[in-house]
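Exam review. A common question shows you a sequence with its structure tokens and asks you to describe the fold in words. Practice with the pair below. Do the first one on your own.
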Amino acid sequence: FLVGLGQGWGCVRGLLIDYTGTEPSSPCNKCLNVSWDSTPPCTCTINFTLEHAFESNVFMYYGLSNFYQNHRRYVKSRDDSQLNGDNSSLLNPSKECEPYRTNEDKPIAPCGAIANSMFNDTLELYRIDNDTRTPITLIKKGIAWWTDKNVKFRNPTGDGNNLTALFQGTTKPVNWPKPVYMLDSEPDNNGFINEDFIVWMRTAALPTFRKLYRLIERKNNFQPTLQAGKYSLDIAYNYPVHSFDGRKRMILSTISWMGGKNPFLGIAYITVGSICFFLGVVLLFIHHKYGNRNTSADIPN
């Protein structure tokens, strides 16, 4: 496994842990060939050290590589009406969801390939102090876009708030270990409005991507959010990636007033801006050198 730690511009700190387990020395190597329905799930623990403290709020991401969420058929494989709580679409999903539209003659909720492939590893973080492990509080709410949580995703409507009854007549996605109405014990984070599910349903543009998993809030201004020292990451390894040569990683990152540490957009903007500036200078030169020629068709005397 790989552990990387660095400090970016604007005092942004970041740490990356690859826990795919392809290396024989990795604690997660035993879980490499895990299947979707492994019972009980394979678990592994990776110990690491923070050389520098993380002062501000910390964002915890999971990252995947070689996973093409931008494939045309994959992106279309969903039913937005169903996800918005439409009762008719719940029992009669869109044909775009095929082949994950029905299972055993029951409509799948949520249907489609995107939902069926939802990331389901469980990550827990602990601080180690004198051989004592103290759990780090990970906040699972507030990780999704407000418009997704409050506008695009809705649970079905009906008498009462019993999601088990509201989803009656449907079945879970093929690769899911439990139905959608059992994603969380809290009513405002269960069913189609579960924030882990909402985050996954916003597809990535590139085959290597990361998605927000949890938040670690700073408790006071006198202590850093994560102190320098020893930590351990407990992983319930449920998500298979070895079959398509994918990789999995956990990322811890802070942000500054300029945003997070992601150089792609900065490099892209600088490159495109430089090209535009160069072309502007070239065209200005051509205009001044050749643009004042006499274009009159009159033949001089």
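Now try the second one, then compare your answer with the model answer below.
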Amino acid sequence: MSPSDRPWSLSIMFLLGMASEGISCPSRCSCQYLEVNCTGQQLQEFPVDIPLDTRQLILAANNVSYLPAVELSFLADLVYLDCRKNLLGDDLDFTFVGVAKLVYLDLSFNNLTQVTFSTFSHLLSLVVLKISDNPNLVAIEKGAFANNTWLRHLDVSRTGLTFLDTSTVRDLPNLRLLGLSDNLWHCNCSFLDFITWMMESDVHFPDADNITCYTPAGLHALRMPAAEAQLHFSCLTQLYKQDYVFLCLVGFCIFLAGTMAAWLAGICAVIYEAHASKGEEEEEEEEEDTAP
């Protein structure tokens, strides 16, 4: 190596040394190539010093209650995030803005309360989403997964859900597996459309025997095929109070219209008879006047 090349080689070695020293691993976590595993370390907060090239981050079985959007956005290459069995429960809207490459996301066994359009709308590559075992999850906004068109596996089992709009899952073109078991489904006429979609869909429903109605009492513990049959009968044939009122009003209007028509027809007949009689009398008088 010539003397002129030595400064460059020393500089490169120095930079490589700095880079190697700069690669760190979060405290109490284990790191290997592109993966950080912090499972069961009783972490209270999102770990710091996560390598920026991390592709897989596992935070399962900790006490993390908040995911900072800014810190997550530094992990732009993240494709796998496992946060199951934590204390996440606050609003997650816009939390995942900076991790658009995410393919796998597990938020099961947390304290989520709702899912809105802004929760996962930036995850355009998402394939697997697990939000099961969130007992406080009571609402998934209509169209919440409208941007997640690559979603194939969605699990919302064992939550506090009582209703799910059909379009929320029906419009996912790649959906193949949907977990719905052990929820508090309210099987009324508004839910009939969703049950009918389940029966006709090609989507696979694991643990289908435990997808049952919770309310009303008459359908409690009834599986969806049987619930569909009963709801078809009750919802499509049963008349409610407002229906009877409507029918009474229609009947009254028909009766009133018939009465008015008959009255008008009677008046017209009387007028015609009177006019005809008057015409006959005038003709008789004319004949008498013209007689010799």
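Model answer, second protein: DSSP finds seven helices and twelve strands in the chain. The longest strand covers residues 30-32. Full marks require stating both points clearly.
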